[in-house]
Amino acid sequence: MTTVREPLRVAIVGLGTVGCGVVDLLRRNAELLAQRTGRPIAIAAVSARDRYKARSVAVDQLPWVEDPRALVHDPSIDVVCELVGGVEGIARELVTRALQAGKAVVTANKALLAVHGAELAALAESRGAALAFEAAVAGGIPIVKALREGLAANRVNRVYGILNGTSNYILTQMRESGREFAAVLAEAQALGYAEADPSFDVDGIDAAHKLALLAALAFGGRPRFDAIHIEGIRHVAPIDIAYADELGYRIKLLGVARLTEHGLEQRLHPCMVPKDAPIAQVEGVLNGVVAECGDAGPMVFEGRGAGAGPTASAVVADLIDLARGNRVPVFGVPADALADPPIAPMSAHRGSYYIRLMVVDRPGVLAEIAAVLRDHEVSIEALIQRGRNPGQAVPIVLTSHETSEAAMTAALARIGRLASVLETPRMIRIERL
Amino acid sequence: MTTVREPLRVAIVGLGTVGCGVVDLLRRNAELLAQRTGRPIAIAAVSARDRYKARSVAVDQLPWVEDPRALVHDPSIDVVCELVGGVEGIARELVTRALQAGKAVVTANKALLAVHGAELAALAESRGAALAFEAAVAGGIPIVKALREGLAANRVNRVYGILNGTSNYILTQMRESGREFAAVLAEAQALGYAEADPSFDVDGIDAAHKLALLAALAFGGRPRFDAIHIEGIRHVAPIDIAYADELGYRIKLLGVARLTEHGLEQRLHPCMVPKDAPIAQVEGVLNGVVAECGDAGPMVFEGRGAGAGPTASAVVADLIDLARGNRVPVFGVPADALADPPIAPMSAHRGSYYIRLMVVDRPGVLAEIAAVLRDHEVSIEALIQRGRNPGQAVPIVLTSHETSEAAMTAALARIGRLASVLETPRMIRIERL
Fold this sequence. Notes:
The structure is a homodimer.
Chain A: E1 8-13, H1 17-28, H2 30-37, E2 41-47, E3 79-82, H3 89-100, E4 104-107, H4 110-126, E5 131-132, H5 143-150, E6 156-162, H6 165-177, H7 181-191, H8 199-202, H9 205-219, E7 229-230, H10 238-247, E8 249-260, E9 263-274, E10 286-293, E11 297-304, H11 308-324, E12 350-360, H12 365-375, E13 380-384, E14 393-400, E15 403-404, H13 405-417, E16 426-430
Parallel strand pairs in A: 1-2, 1-3, 3-4, 4-5, 7-9, 9-16
Antiparallel strand pairs in A: 6-8, 6-10, 8-9, 10-11, 12-14, 12-15, 12-16, 13-14
Helix pairs in contact in A: 1-11, 3-4, 4-9, 6-7, 12-13
């Protein structure tokens, strides 16, 4: 619709997997992109730590910039693509300076935005600069655009998702093979699906960064990574996966955000979800997000959440918006109108729970446990005690009706101290979908 | 971002389920929408056939316009929402006149755009007017925006979906209950899930309108509803659903579009899809769309495809874009650049097939059938012949390896003429996902 034909001039900073993917995509689909946006998208500069490193794409014909900070005041650059990563350091400095200079920024940096998002959004809007981050959440799935635009007519009741492909791959493998976490992790590392230091993925940090952004978009608030309750998947045991199956559930590392009477609740932890729920079908390295919209109902999005192709697709989608001249407030509402609701304490969470206990098989044990639960007003929904082994250890599994986290935590502390209970009780939250 | 505070002034034409849903949503979420767009979205006029009809929302406080054509030259109107429906008549006239007058148009009218879309897109762009239609495809699922913007960095290889909730509901009920099509349809009609005249839904017309739009968006071409191969679900029998289950499939009314060496292939017909494919999990009245993207991989979208809430959500999403001042070419590329590829004839389709035959149970029948298939170079993948009934009718079910529609059609015509084959052979295409 616009007749402008000058290229959109993009500087790409960071030439790892994602950066090289963006270079490759912009080259291969150059004609298509020009047709769709009405103007070429040109790579006007590239920058990375090591110019001579072996890369999946040739960059020697592209204008190399040694210090990316020099791009910020370069009038021949319209957009800085920050693909370096990290909460602080060069990523934060570059994005801040570029926005200060009024340059549009496209980034895949979930950590940066989860922590400094509100401040950067305010800066961007004060300078009239765009700050786009489709690639920061769920890779190629256009969920940022969906929440900020396509579903923006709705109040969102709850948003939840599988936001880390590595941990979902591990849980899927554990379920399919019956193996322990450590064995599956080691295999995933050998196959290159998990990092040598897997903490970001399996301890839930990466997914929590994305959850902070999803919650900000869904509820028009400041991203509050610091206020997320985070538990990873290291404690998920094959026996729990087997019991989940028997009870009609699958175990997923789920991020969940909703506004409750106590404020913003953000949780990232292993969850049991009903087997037939769409999110339970999201397997292997895939990501999935469900936005429960007031008027439109639940909307399900599923696709590849990481890797060069999907992430580059999202980065370039942001460039397409910029090339077309389209703009939306960073988190869907103007930065100065971003809500800052109270944070609901995890103790106020209400939900159902799965509990697994190792107990001595002798008369009266169950009565003791039931009495503790009753004292804390936790009511039992289902109970599995199978196999007898008089005087020896046997597992007891139970699920509760809806109760509060505070009540469950207190009950489990008491149960854990019972003489007949041999191991620390295992608890996994059940998410009603 | 923008400091414009004047309202976006919207005229709503058509006050059926969707029109009333839009009025309701704009009222209930007025504050939220103003916050998200930076300006109010105001209902400046409403129009419908019967002013005094009982409606789900009160419209007596809204400016009533008897002849919606009067809106077209009303300077107090920014956007005309056409929610009347129909390929011709007032819908086409109103949209055409509004665009001619340079007014933005938002419509939920899949039929109009599937047939006249290219012409209307050209008109809109020639007058600098927006023409938006998120609500025309898959109700509340923001798939138009996803294809036109969020996934626009990719070449799409194939797009397919379950695009009609009524027929998906009927197929789901048939599978779950084992009942015949006619019985389930009658029940759906009694429950209000199917129209008294169900043809649009069960014969695939409605879904084909949506497929034409999906294909246009995915491949940047003119919508070609006239070139879609359409078959409905009236011939799907409980026995085929049971065999599908046994073979690892579910039967879905699927719309599929792709660019082949023969040109644009668009098909809307019952398909067998692998049970564990995401699209197979889309059950009941839900809709689902999968876009197979070159770089991002397959992206799955699932949600409510009809009804006041979801459709209004999509209409208002378009209004939000307009209020924010964002614009994209109607079908993702400028109208004068829309491709018009040759149409691949259905006979050139290649795929696998499910065949069910009722034959006389006597020696040599299978050899006869196998010989015909061999003559047409159709190779058998699996065969089920179960139960004996010498001299009487028994079913034979077989699936083929990939072959051409032309070969399969010719083979089935010959098989149908064999003396030992008692009924017209039933064929259902298998979609490899």
